[in-house]
Amino acid sequence: MKPFKAFLIAFFSVAVIISLPDLSHAQCPTSNTVFGEGEQIRYTVSYNWGPVWVDAGLVTFSVTNELFRGKPSWHLKGTGKSFASYDVLFKVRDYFDSWIDPESFKSLDFRRNVFEGGYTLLNTLNFDYNSQKVISNTKCKNNPQRTDTLPIRPCAFDMLSAVYFTRTLDFSDLRPENKKQVTVLIDDAYYDIYIRPLGKEIVESTDGKRYRCIKFAAKMVQGTIFKGEEDVLVWVTDDANKIPIYIEAKIIVGTIKAYLKDAKGLRNPTASVVR
Fold first, then answer.
1. According to a count of CB atoms within 10 Å of the terminal CB, is the N or C end of the chain lower?
2. What is the distance between the alpha carbons of residues 73 and 15, in angstroms, rounded to a whole number?
3. Which of 136, 125, 129 has the alpha carbon at shortest distance from 104?
4. Rounded to an integer, what distance in angstroms lies between the CA atom of residue 24 and that of residue 13?
5. Where does the chain show beta strands of DSSP type E?
């Protein structure tokens, strides 16, 4: 089993894509008052190795404003790296890049370059809105490159742009009885994932601060990593930044946890901190 890889799948594709309104009959919202240039958020990832919890690695998200093919864009970056002490067990060096239109939040280009215990994968997604198609190129270890063409779905996102897009949404209409669906494009296929709000709680982070949070459960797709149940729990700050503070993901052979390590360049005050 690849615990760090399992966490990255949960985190990048589900853990922070929370509280989506029903998008099947609505326009995709585009207003962003949540993040801006220079934001960086880091998480420590831990895995229960038998009865022992082991700090496995670090996940980092960052935002820069730059030109993409001559047009203004947000360049979103995500990295996942195992610690040197964990490299002897399972070395991970994963890099995610997404360029999105700052006004519409539409994905322009996406790149995923991973090294996980000797396994390598390079996936690129190019979004052609004139033809309403996505060109996916995937190169997996020693296998030949595979090219797939998919239709562009409305309100569907690459793994990284989904993280930032959903942070901009209004959480105030949440009700415990509501189930929400989000569509994410991962490599060469779309996946629908369901999220359910579980109320509000106060969570203490590793920095000793206590945060008012909204709690969610996510039902994952059944496969070799998840059981297809509400395998992921997420606690997100109940303030204007909407940052995940703590994430817990149950996989077939254990549990993975992620804790907020630090954050800088936040656009808004951290009003969720309990004084």
1. C
2. 24
3. 129
4. 19
5. 40-49, 52-68, 71-82, 92-100, 107-116, 119-128, 133-140, 146-151, 156-158, 180-186, 189-204, 210-219, 232-237, 244-251, 254-264
Structure tokens at 120: 């390598």
Q: Distance (Å, rounded) from C-alpha 204 to C-alpha 186?
A: 32
Cα 76 off chain centre by: 11
Q: Are 96 and 78 in contact (CB under 8 A)?
A: yes
CA distance 199 to 20: 15
Which is nearest to 48 in space by CA: 262, 246, 251, 265?
A: 251
Distance, first Cα to last Cα, the chain? 41
Structure confidence at residue 26 (pLDDT): 41
Separation CA 163–CA 145 (nearest Å): 27
Residues in contact with 51: Cβ distance below 8 Å, sequence separation at least 6, in sequence order: none
3-state secondary structure of 90: helix
Tokens standing for 154? 């409305």
| Count of residues in the chain | 275
Q: Which residues are within 8 A (CB) of 78 and not within 5 positions of it... i.e. 6 or more apart?
A: 12, 59, 60, 61, 94, 95, 96, 97, 159, 160, 163
